[in-house]
Specification:
Two copies of one chain form a homodimer. By secondary structure, the first copy, chain A, is α+β, with helices and mostly antiparallel strands. Chain A has helices at 12-22, 29-36, 40-52, 75-92; strands at 27-28, 56-63, 66-73. Chain A binds chain B through residues 1-2, 4-5, 7, 10, 12, 15-16, 19, 22-23, 35-37, 81-82, 85, 88-89, 91-93, 95-96, and chain B through 1-2, 4-5, 7, 10, 12, 15-16, 19, 22-23, 35-37, 81-82, 85, 88-89, 91-93, 95-96. Chain A binds a DNA duplex (30 and 30 nucleotides) through helix 2, helix 3 and strand 3.
Chain lengths: 96, 96
Amino acid sequence: MFKELNPLLHSELRLAVVSLLISVESADFVYIKEQTKATAGNLSVQLDKLQKAGYIKVEKGFKGKMPRTTCSITPEGVSAFEEYVKALRSYLGDKI
Amino acid sequence: MFKELNPLLHSELRLAVVSLLISVESADFVYIKEQTKATAGNLSVQLDKLQKAGYIKVEKGFKGKMPRTTCSITPEGVSAFEEYVKALRSYLGDKI
DNA sequence: TAAAGTAGTTTATTTTATAAACCAAACAAA
DNA sequence: TTTGTTTGGTTTATAAAATAAACTACTTTA
Protein backbone atom coordinates (compact mmCIF):
# COMPACT_ATOMS: atom_id res chain seq x y z
CA MET A 1 0.00 0.00 0.00
CA PHE A 2 2.34 2.73 1.22
CA LYS A 3 5.93 2.45 0.04
CA GLU A 4 8.75 3.34 2.41
CA LEU A 5 10.12 6.83 2.08
CA ASN A 6 13.91 7.01 2.14
CA PRO A 7 14.48 8.93 5.37
CA LEU A 8 17.59 10.58 4.01
CA LEU A 9 15.53 12.28 1.35
CA HIS A 10 12.39 12.75 3.42
CA SER A 11 13.78 15.88 5.00
CA GLU A 12 12.80 19.31 3.78
CA LEU A 13 16.32 20.68 3.45
CA ARG A 14 18.00 17.57 2.07
CA LEU A 15 15.18 17.14 -0.43
CA ALA A 16 15.60 20.74 -1.53
CA VAL A 17 19.35 20.28 -1.93
CA VAL A 18 18.99 17.16 -4.03
CA SER A 19 16.18 18.68 -6.03
CA LEU A 20 18.34 21.71 -6.74
CA LEU A 21 21.45 19.74 -7.67
CA ILE A 22 19.51 17.46 -9.96
CA SER A 23 18.80 20.29 -12.34
CA VAL A 24 22.09 22.10 -12.20
CA GLU A 25 25.35 20.20 -12.85
CA SER A 26 26.95 21.77 -9.77
CA ALA A 27 26.34 24.48 -7.19
CA ASP A 28 28.38 26.02 -4.42
CA PHE A 29 27.61 26.25 -0.72
CA VAL A 30 26.57 29.88 -0.76
CA TYR A 31 24.24 29.44 -3.70
CA ILE A 32 22.55 26.41 -2.15
CA LYS A 33 22.23 28.28 1.11
CA GLU A 34 20.51 31.18 -0.64
CA GLN A 35 18.18 29.06 -2.71
CA THR A 36 17.10 26.87 0.16
CA LYS A 37 17.07 29.68 2.75
CA ALA A 38 18.92 27.37 5.11
CA THR A 39 21.29 28.48 7.83
CA ALA A 40 24.94 27.71 7.17
CA GLY A 41 25.14 25.32 10.11
CA ASN A 42 22.12 23.33 9.11
CA LEU A 43 23.26 23.19 5.49
CA SER A 44 26.73 22.04 6.49
CA VAL A 45 25.28 19.17 8.52
CA GLN A 46 22.82 18.09 5.84
CA LEU A 47 25.37 18.24 3.02
CA ASP A 48 27.58 16.02 5.11
CA LYS A 49 24.82 13.44 5.47
CA LEU A 50 24.09 13.46 1.77
CA GLN A 51 27.76 13.08 1.00
CA LYS A 52 28.22 10.21 3.43
CA ALA A 53 25.26 8.48 1.81
CA GLY A 54 26.99 8.90 -1.54
CA TYR A 55 24.17 11.00 -2.93
CA ILE A 56 26.27 14.09 -3.59
CA LYS A 57 29.92 14.90 -4.18
CA VAL A 58 31.42 17.76 -2.19
CA GLU A 59 34.58 19.46 -3.36
CA LYS A 60 36.46 22.04 -1.33
CA GLY A 61 38.65 24.50 -3.11
CA PHE A 62 39.28 28.21 -3.35
CA LYS A 63 37.84 31.00 -5.44
CA GLY A 64 40.73 33.43 -5.31
CA LYS A 65 41.61 33.39 -1.65
CA MET A 66 38.18 32.54 -0.31
CA PRO A 67 37.15 28.96 0.43
CA ARG A 68 34.57 27.57 -1.91
CA THR A 69 32.62 24.33 -1.53
CA THR A 70 31.08 22.92 -4.66
CA CYS A 71 28.47 20.20 -4.68
CA SER A 72 27.10 17.98 -7.37
CA ILE A 73 24.75 15.05 -7.46
CA THR A 74 25.98 11.51 -8.05
CA PRO A 75 24.23 8.80 -10.08
CA GLU A 76 23.23 7.17 -6.78
CA GLY A 77 21.74 10.47 -5.72
CA VAL A 78 19.72 10.68 -8.89
CA SER A 79 18.32 7.20 -8.56
CA ALA A 80 17.59 7.60 -4.86
CA PHE A 81 15.63 10.72 -5.72
CA GLU A 82 13.73 8.91 -8.44
CA GLU A 83 12.90 6.08 -6.07
CA TYR A 84 11.75 8.58 -3.48
CA VAL A 85 9.42 10.25 -5.94
CA LYS A 86 8.02 6.89 -6.95
CA ALA A 87 7.37 5.99 -3.31
CA LEU A 88 5.73 9.35 -2.71
CA ARG A 89 3.20 8.59 -5.37
CA SER A 90 1.79 5.84 -3.18
CA TYR A 91 0.82 8.54 -0.71
CA LEU A 92 -0.45 11.11 -3.14
CA GLY A 93 -2.75 8.99 -5.26
CA ASP A 94 -4.11 10.90 -8.19
CA LYS A 95 -3.55 14.23 -6.47
CA ILE A 96 -0.39 14.72 -8.47
CA MET B 1 11.68 28.62 -5.10
CA PHE B 2 10.99 25.87 -2.56
CA LYS B 3 7.70 26.15 -0.74
CA GLU B 4 7.52 25.25 2.94
CA LEU B 5 6.34 21.76 3.71
CA ASN B 6 3.80 21.59 6.53
CA PRO B 7 5.80 19.67 9.14
CA LEU B 8 2.68 18.02 10.49
CA LEU B 9 2.13 16.32 7.18
CA HIS B 10 5.77 15.85 6.29
CA SER B 11 6.01 12.70 8.38
CA GLU B 12 5.75 9.29 6.85
CA LEU B 13 3.14 7.92 9.20
CA ARG B 14 0.99 11.04 9.48
CA LEU B 15 1.06 11.45 5.71
CA ALA B 16 -0.04 7.84 5.27
CA VAL B 17 -2.88 8.32 7.74
CA VAL B 18 -4.17 11.44 6.04
CA SER B 19 -3.72 9.91 2.61
CA LEU B 20 -5.72 6.90 3.73
CA LEU B 21 -8.50 8.88 5.37
CA ILE B 22 -8.86 11.15 2.37
CA SER B 23 -10.12 8.31 0.24
CA VAL B 24 -12.26 6.51 2.74
CA GLU B 25 -14.96 8.41 4.70
CA SER B 26 -13.80 6.84 7.97
CA ALA B 27 -11.50 4.14 9.29
CA ASP B 28 -10.86 2.59 12.67
CA PHE B 29 -7.63 2.38 14.64
CA VAL B 30 -6.96 -1.26 13.86
CA TYR B 31 -7.53 -0.82 10.15
CA ILE B 32 -5.24 2.20 9.96
CA LYS B 33 -2.64 0.32 11.95
CA GLU B 34 -2.75 -2.57 9.51
CA GLN B 35 -2.67 -0.47 6.38
CA THR B 36 0.17 1.72 7.56
CA LYS B 37 2.07 -1.10 9.30
CA ALA B 38 2.55 1.23 12.25
CA THR B 39 2.91 0.13 15.84
CA ALA B 40 -0.04 0.93 18.07
CA GLY B 41 2.00 3.32 20.20
CA ASN B 42 3.32 5.29 17.30
CA LEU B 43 -0.09 5.43 15.66
CA SER B 44 -1.72 6.60 18.87
CA VAL B 45 0.75 9.45 19.20
CA GLN B 46 0.47 10.53 15.58
CA LEU B 47 -3.34 10.39 15.51
CA ASP B 48 -3.31 12.61 18.54
CA LYS B 49 -1.17 15.19 16.77
CA LEU B 50 -3.38 15.15 13.71
CA GLN B 51 -6.43 15.54 15.87
CA LYS B 52 -4.95 18.41 17.86
CA ALA B 53 -4.15 20.14 14.58
CA GLY B 54 -7.80 19.72 13.59
CA TYR B 55 -6.88 17.62 10.57
CA ILE B 56 -8.79 14.54 11.67
CA LYS B 57 -11.72 13.73 13.92
CA VAL B 58 -11.27 10.87 16.39
CA GLU B 59 -14.29 9.18 17.91
CA LYS B 60 -14.10 6.62 20.67
CA GLY B 61 -16.93 4.18 21.02
CA PHE B 62 -17.59 0.48 21.30
CA LYS B 63 -18.16 -2.31 18.82
CA GLY B 64 -20.07 -4.74 21.01
CA LYS B 65 -18.06 -4.68 24.18
CA MET B 66 -14.69 -3.86 22.64
CA PRO B 67 -13.40 -0.31 22.36
CA ARG B 68 -13.27 1.07 18.89
CA THR B 69 -11.64 4.30 17.73
CA THR B 70 -12.88 5.71 14.48
CA CYS B 71 -11.10 8.44 12.53
CA SER B 72 -12.13 10.64 9.69
CA ILE B 73 -10.59 13.57 7.91
CA THR B 74 -11.86 17.11 8.41
CA PRO B 75 -12.17 19.81 5.75
CA GLU B 76 -9.07 21.45 7.27
CA GLY B 77 -7.27 18.15 6.90
CA VAL B 78 -8.22 17.94 3.25
CA SER B 79 -7.04 21.41 2.47
CA ALA B 80 -3.82 21.02 4.44
CA PHE B 81 -3.13 17.89 2.43
CA GLU B 82 -3.82 19.69 -0.82
CA GLU B 83 -1.51 22.52 0.19
CA TYR B 84 1.16 20.02 1.12
CA VAL B 85 0.94 18.35 -2.26
CA LYS B 86 1.16 21.70 -3.98
CA ALA B 87 4.27 22.60 -1.97
CA LEU B 88 5.82 19.24 -2.76
CA ARG B 89 5.61 20.00 -6.44
CA SER B 90 8.16 22.76 -5.96
CA TYR B 91 10.64 20.05 -4.98
CA LEU B 92 9.72 17.47 -7.55
CA GLY B 93 9.67 19.58 -10.68
CA ASP B 94 8.44 17.65 -13.65
CA LYS B 95 9.34 14.34 -12.08
CA ILE B 96 5.75 13.85 -11.08
C1' DT C 1 45.59 47.31 13.14
C1' DA C 2 41.00 46.96 14.67
C1' DA C 3 36.45 45.96 13.08
C1' DA C 4 33.55 43.69 10.12
C1' DG C 5 32.51 40.32 6.66
C1' DT C 6 32.82 35.61 4.34
C1' DA C 7 32.67 30.74 4.37
C1' DG C 8 32.09 27.54 6.61
C1' DT C 9 32.35 23.70 11.00
C1' DT C 10 31.39 22.05 15.59
C1' DT C 11 28.71 21.58 19.48
C1' DA C 12 24.56 22.11 22.08
C1' DT C 13 19.66 22.29 22.36
C1' DT C 14 15.14 21.34 20.97
C1' DT C 15 11.96 18.68 18.62
C1' DT C 16 10.38 14.28 16.61
C1' DA C 17 9.80 9.73 15.87
C1' DT C 18 9.80 5.36 17.63
C1' DA C 19 9.82 1.71 20.84
C1' DA C 20 8.93 -0.25 25.11
C1' DA C 21 6.21 -0.68 28.93
C1' DC C 22 1.97 -0.45 30.71
C1' DC C 23 -3.36 -0.57 31.52
C1' DA C 24 -8.14 -2.18 31.40
C1' DA C 25 -11.47 -4.99 29.74
C1' DA C 26 -12.82 -9.34 27.37
C1' DC C 27 -12.40 -14.01 26.29
C1' DA C 28 -10.77 -18.80 26.91
C1' DA C 29 -9.87 -22.78 29.37
C1' DA C 30 -8.61 -25.65 33.14
C1' DT D 1 -13.11 -19.11 39.46
C1' DT D 2 -8.83 -17.71 38.79
C1' DT D 3 -4.94 -17.85 35.62
C1' DG D 4 -3.46 -16.81 31.21
C1' DT D 5 -4.08 -14.59 26.60
C1' DT D 6 -5.82 -11.38 23.31
C1' DT D 7 -7.64 -6.92 21.95
C1' DG D 8 -7.40 -2.07 21.77
C1' DG D 9 -5.35 1.07 22.98
C1' DT D 10 -2.28 5.05 26.11
C1' DT D 11 1.75 6.69 28.50
C1' DT D 12 6.44 7.10 29.19
C1' DA D 13 11.22 6.53 27.90
C1' DT D 14 14.77 6.43 24.47
C1' DA D 15 16.89 7.28 20.11
C1' DA D 16 17.44 10.02 16.27
C1' DA D 17 16.89 14.30 13.75
C1' DA D 18 16.64 19.02 12.86
C1' DT D 19 17.97 23.38 14.10
C1' DA D 20 20.31 27.07 16.30
C1' DA D 21 24.08 29.01 18.58
C1' DA D 22 28.76 29.43 19.16
C1' DC D 23 33.03 29.15 17.25
C1' DT D 24 37.17 28.97 13.76
C1' DA D 25 39.96 30.76 10.25
C1' DC D 26 40.84 33.74 7.01
C1' DT D 27 39.94 38.25 4.23
C1' DT D 28 38.70 42.72 3.30
C1' DT D 29 37.94 47.38 4.50
C1' DA D 30 38.31 51.62 7.26
